[in-house]
C-alpha cells in the first residue's frame, strides 16, 4: 500500500465495503453508457479520464492523515449512508441529498471547491454550449453535483434556465 496515495487507499476501502454490500461498480454511468453505445448514440464526457483521475489523486492532499481517518470513520456507517442516499434519490429529496452528499465535503473547503464547485462551473460552460445546438443531449453527473446552492441545478436557475423535477 506504500505505493499508493492516501486518496487511492481511501477509495479502495470504500469500494471494498460497497462490494461487501453487493453494490456493483457498474452503476448508473455504465448502464447509460452501454445503452447509448447499443443505440449507436454519441457519447462524450464533461471532462477527460485523466482529469477525473487527478481529482481522485488530489483528494485530501495536504491533510492526508485526516482524510484517511475520516474515511475509516465513515466506513462504520457506509451501509446506512448508502441506503439513505438511495432512498433520498428515489424520492427526489434534494435537501436530504445535499445533507448526505455535500454537507460533509463542505467541511473541507478546499476539497469542496476542487471536487464540486470548480467542476460544476467548468461543466456549465459545456452545458450552455449544448443548448446552442439543435440536438437534445442527455447529461449524467453524480448526485452531489446536482444539489445544494453551488450545484448545477441552482446554477442553471441563476443563469435563467427553467429547471423541473421529473
SSE arrangement:
Elements: H1 6-20, H2 27-38, H3 49-58, H4 64-75, H5 78-91, H6 94-106, H7 109-130, H8 152-158
Structure class: mainly alpha
- Average residue pLDDT: 89
Order of helices and strands: HHHHHHHH
Shape: globular
Tally of DSSP β-strands: 0
- Stretches with pLDDT under 50, minimum 5 residues: none
Distance between the termini: 44 Å
The number of distinct helices, counting runs of at least 4 residues, comes to 8
Strand content: under 5%
Percent helix, as a range, is: 55-70%
Q: How would a textbook summarize the main sheet?
A: none
CA gyration radius, whole angstroms: 17 Å
Oligomeric assembly: single chain
Structure commentary:
With 166 residues, the protein is mainly α. The chain is 63% helix and 0% strand. The protein contains eight helices and no strands. The protein has helices at 6-20, 27-38, 49-58, 64-75, 78-91, 94-106, 109-130, 152-158. It is globular and about 50 Å long.
Task: Describe the structure concisely.
This protein is mostly helical and about 170 residues long. The chain has helices at about 5-20, 25-40, 50-60, 65-75, 80-90, 95-105, 110-130, 150-160.
Characteristics:
single chain; 166 residues; 8 helices; globular
Amino acid at each position: 500500500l506504500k505505493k499508493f496515495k492516501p486518496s487511492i487507499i481511501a477509495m479502495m476501502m470504500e469500494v471494498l465495503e460497497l462490494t461487501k454490500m453487493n453494490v456493483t461498480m457498474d452503476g448508473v454511468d455504465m448502464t447509460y453508457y452501454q445503452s447509448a453505445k447499443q443505440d449507436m448514440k454519441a457519447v462524450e464526457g464533461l471532462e477527460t479520464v485523466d482529469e477525473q483521475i487527478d481529482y481522485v489523486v488530489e483528494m485530501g492532499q495536504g491533510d492526508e492523515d485526516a482524510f484517511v481517518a475520516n474515511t475509516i470513520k465513515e466506513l462504520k456507517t457506509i451501509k446506512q449512508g448508502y441506503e439513505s442516499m438511495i432512498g433520498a434519490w428515489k424520492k427526489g429529496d434534494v435537501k436530504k441529498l445535499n445533507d448526505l452528499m455535500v454537507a460533509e465535503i463542505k467541511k473541507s473547503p478546499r476539497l469542496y471547491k476542487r471536487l464540486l464547485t470548480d467542476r460544476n462551473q467548468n461543466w456549465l460552460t459545456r452545458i450552455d454550449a449544448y443548448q446552442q445546438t439543435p440536438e437534445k443531449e442527455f447529461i449524467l453527473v453524480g448526485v452531489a453535483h446536482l444539489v445544494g446552492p453551488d450545484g448545477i441545478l441552482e446554477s442553471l436557475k441563476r443563469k435563467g434556465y427553467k429547471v423541473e423535477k421529473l
